[in-house]
Amino acid sequence: MRVGLRATHLINRIFTHSVGSASAVRWRTAHIKLLCSSSDESRGSRSSLLRHLTSKIQATGPITVAEYMREVLTNPLMGYYVRNDMLGPDGDFITSPEISQIFGELIGVWIISEWIGAGRPKQLQLVELGPGKGSLAADILRVFTQLHSVIGDASVSLHLVEVSPVLSRIQAQELTRTCSHEVDNTDTPVYCSGETATGLPVSWYRRLEDVPAGFSIFLAHEFFDALPVHKFERTQKGWREVLVDIHPEKPEQLRFVLAPSPTLASSALVQADERRSHVEVCAEGGVLVQQLARRVAEHGGAALIADYGHDGTKTDTLRGFKGHRQHHVLADPGSADLTADVDFRYLRRMAGGGVACMGPLAQRAFLKNMGIDARMQVLLRNCTDASTRKQLINSYALLTDPAQMGERFNFFCLLHHGRLVQPQVLTGLKLEKRSPAQLPVAGFTELSYS
Ligand SMILES: C[S@@+](CC[C@H](N)C(=O)[O-])C[C@H]1O[C@@H](n2cnc3c(N)ncnc32)[C@H](O)[C@@H]1O
To answer: InterPro entries from the entry (predicted)?
Structure first.
């Protein structure tokens, strides 16, 4: 299909700018970790997290898997994300922006393409949910700098929604040259602010609802999979919720049990026509998607959600990761990442009819549509160092190989309905009047170079 000429122009310009420069072949290696997950301090907080969980269960009974996940990942004092820098080769897992800067560059082109498709609004808010080390935002901002003549005098700002004080400090180091201003007060919507090297304002928030309204492109990369899921199992007596309890013979251990009767969540969250025998429902993700959809419908823009996920087909996907290996979900809570694949069918349903949804589309297809192959060819042509070439090829394979992230990782987006409206062609006897052709949605349709 021959579409996306404008996006290909943008990509060509990025390629031309970066070719042969040191940054074009700077593939990410491990960043220094501020807090090692195996430090004594961290081990202490993990055992206190287990104590906190067991005393909670002793007081009120078994807790839902969603509550367990929320406590383990984001407990304000002891949560895994709150205390750790877990990303990268030396951490517990690695993500696409940490594997290669090409990834962020292509997302940067996607954002500008959507901004052009929306008619180049004067204001562009880039809002990232769960920005990790800030690598994705940094690579996107570099594209914005390279395309400053395209962006013109639009006012661009960066808004980061981050729950982790450790990671927000790393993000500030990565993104802001000027000293960031931190606020301790938890009631203040903006808890940190600063400015990038090129003078763009950056603000940090704990919740999406604190981000100001306005035309925005929202990004959520490996964010929804970190949100708590409820788990349900079909039994002969109907749907029952999976809960977390203390092991009766080993009080230092937790185990999964089934609720003896329906819970509020099992009654409200399982669909009447559900065919699977085990389902995971991320109610928090559903609420967030509703908020994103409302903002896109009211103020314009788009939301790009990229994650491990499925279209309402998978069952038991909750797993733990520690040191790049799978880790039992209930073992040593707080020492490992917990993640559950995103159910995009559920997100589509929760987004409602106020926005258009595209995807899920496999990462391999999305990146190829965005021109990753052409970008690779240029980089390899300009790279003479054998080890850098090897790194380039390995990173490309990690991102696109179907057995690695190529098929398991998916892209999904919410768009303003106006973005997809077919242009009107007005014909008369003597006059044929055409409105400008609608710009196709990059990434979700194949680009052609002409
Ligand atoms: C798996 S990491 C992904 C980081 C980054 N997006 C990447 O792909 O490299 C999840 C990110 O979301 C943040 N996070 C997790 N739960 C959150 C929540 N409820 N609110 C805000 N941020 C959250 C974490 O601190 C972390 O920055």
So the answer is: NDUFAF7, NDUFAF7_sf, SAM-dependent_MTases_sf
